[in-house]
Amino acid sequence: MKKIGRPTDCLKDIDLKVRVDSKTNSKIISYAHENNITKAEVVRIAIKEFFGRK
């Protein structure tokens, strides 16, 4: 029987804390709200984009 709960194909077991200014935080919140995603997902997308350009 398959387990019920969070999928483990991409385990996110590292907790990362980042300090940002209020303007950046507002942009993150706005983007998250407009795209119906969490702030954490906004940051993950931004990190993927950053490393994708290098």
Describe the structure.
52% of the residues lie in helices and 0% in strands. With 54 residues, it is mostly helical. The protein has a domain at 22-52. The protein is elongated, with a radius of gyration of 14 Å.
Broad shape: elongated
User: Could you list the spans in which at least 5 consecutive residues all have pLDDT below 50?
Assistant: none
Helical content class: 40-55%
The run of helices and strands is: HH
Tell me the layout of helices and strands.
Elements: H1 22-35, H2 39-52
Helix pairs in contact: 1-2
Question: Summary?
Answer:
The chain has two helices and no strands. By secondary structure, it is mainly α. The protein has a domain of 31 residues.
Name a few traits of the molecule:
0% strand; single chain; mainly alpha; elongated; 54 residues
